[in-house]
Predict the 3D structure of the following.
Amino acid sequence: MGILAWIFLGLVAGVLAKFIMPGQQGGGIIVTIVLGVVGAFVGGFLGTHVFGFGDISGFDLRSIAIAVGGALLVLFLYGLAARSRA
């Protein structure tokens, strides 16, 4: 996938992760996009190299689920880091 596709998938993953796990993580739409893109990469890496799901090559339900899972993990870690700084 191209970089714009990853950004779009990250936006979708970030919004879905924020919807699934609402809270006081802070940040606006830019932080949501960044966390979603990072989560998409983390989910893609874990899905491909750790769990052996195979290559993520396009927009399908599996790739969105993996990206949302990665975004949830990143959002959870970001919330822990933000909480410890406050």
Remarks:
- The chain has a mean pLDDT of 77.
- Residues 61-85 form the longest helix (25 residues).
- The CA atoms of residues 39 and 74 lie 6 Å apart.
